[in-house]
Amino acid sequence: MNQVRKADPNNKTVAENRKARFSYEVLDTIETGLVLTGTEVKSLRQGQANIQDSYASVEGGEIWLINSYLPEYLQANRFNHEPRRRRKLLLNKREMAKLSQSVDREGMTLVPLKIYFNEKGRAKLLLAVGRGKKLHDKRETEKQRDWSREKGRLLKERG
């Protein structure tokens, strides 16, 4: 009945932005493709990417991932890539228009949540449309998290 599913080696998270959900109120998420060079893909497969301080920007009708860090692939020698270069995101026109309107009109921000490989082995980016939280919102989030943790401990103790 219950089948144990093995973890697919292709479908794994490479980099995750854990601060994003704390700093931003995530309203919508969308899966995007990334335009990468061969050495960037090999570097991603080693799992050393960092998207903590990165963001996405709409420029010239295209959406770009800015300030993401993919370290150089050591075996590539002179064919290596620049670690902090801007990377183009792949979306269809309707999705790009929707994201650019929400950023322009409503003052939202495009925040990358995680980079992962899908079941086909392609590198994907989970992009969120979010609104920045104020300090009191962050405190409220921390209170709720602490309370749910404490509630779980109490329920575990009492049975």
From TrEMBL:
One of its GO terms (cellular component) is cytosol. SUPFAM superfamilies: Small protein B (SmpB). One of its GO terms (molecular function) is RNA binding. Gene3D superfamilies: 2.40.280.10. One of its GO terms (biological process) is trans-translation-dependent protein tagging. InterPro entries: SmpB (IPR023620), SsrA-bd_prot (IPR000037), SsrA-bd_prot_CS (IPR020081). It is found in: Cytoplasm. Transmembrane segments: none annotated. Residues 137-159 are annotated as: Disordered. Keywords: Cytoplasm, RNA-binding. Pfam families: SmpB. Required for rescue of stalled ribosomes mediated by trans-translation. Binds to transfer-messenger RNA (tmRNA), required for stable association of tmRNA with ribosomes. tmRNA and SmpB together mimic tRNA shape, replacing the anticodon stem-loop with SmpB. tmRNA is encoded by the ssrA gene; the 2 termini fold to resemble tRNA(Ala) and it encodes a 'tag peptide', a short internal open reading frame. During trans-translation Ala-aminoacylated tmRNA acts like a tRNA, entering the A-site of stalled ribosomes, displacing the stalled mRNA. Belongs to the SmpB family. This is SsrA-binding protein.
